Amino acid sequence: MNIEINITDENELLNIYNKNIISETLDNYLITSLEHRSLKEDITINIIGTKNEFIKSIITSYYEEKYLYLKKIDKLDNYIRLTLFLIGILAIFISKQFTNIVSEVFLIAGWVIIWEIIYDVLFSEIKRKRKARIYKTLAKAKIILKD
Question: Is the pTM of the predicted complex or chain greater than 0.90?
Answer without folding.
Answer: no
